[in-house]
């Protein structure tokens, strides 16, 4: 790892416990959409939501601890996970808004699904004063369904386009501030931080995606 970017192949709860209280400027994270997750954050399906609730309560509580008083949290979700994450986050954070990512694409036979949501939260602190400009609908094309797994194209089932993550990182932080992601995946958020001169701390429990992220970031 270098001084700016740190990614560890470990369970995110174990990693979070090593971080100092109030040391993170923003958490930007895309929790597994249950295409590979169990009660401990590794494997399962959408029907396992009730099993993973304690896990996410513990993770989000740690997010609150490590965030600075004016820190921000952005959690990606889809129409199935939004009603699961929202009430948990509402117990711990102040929910400021919902950002809608319009992907301009979709696949499936029951009306093409062409957007995802990002729940925007802050610590429940009176010192928060980072007012946001712009609209809460972001129109950025997603990967096509036929994207190959090479040359920077889609290499993870929920991989986000670099343009989206750069916009989010730039909105959430200033240069040299620190971003945390506990579900690194293929490392797109880390790559955006590297390009925009932000510090990054991340954890990825699956060794294959950890190796992909390390390779993409040339760490």
TrEMBL record:
Drop me one GO molecular function for this one.
N-methyltransferase activity
GO biological process, alphabetically ordered: methylation
Instruction: Write out the entry's keywords from A to Z.
Output: Methyltransferase, Transferase
What does the record give as EC number?
2.1.1.-
Which Pfam families is this protein grouped with?
Answer: N6_N4_Mtase
Please list the residue ranges annotated as the DNA methylase N-4/N-6 domain.
24-214
For this protein, the record's InterPro entries field holds: DNA_methylase_N4/N6, DNA_methylase_N6_adenine_CS, RM_Methyltransferase, SAM-dependent_MTases_sf
Q: One Gene Ontology cellular component annotation?
A: cytoplasm
The record's family statement is: Belongs to the N(4)/N(6)-methyltransferase family.
PANTHER family per record: RNA METHYLASE-RELATED, TRNA (GUANINE(10)-N2)-METHYLTRANSFERASE HOMOLOG
- Protein name as annotated: Methyltransferase
What species is this protein from?
Answer: Aureispira anguillae
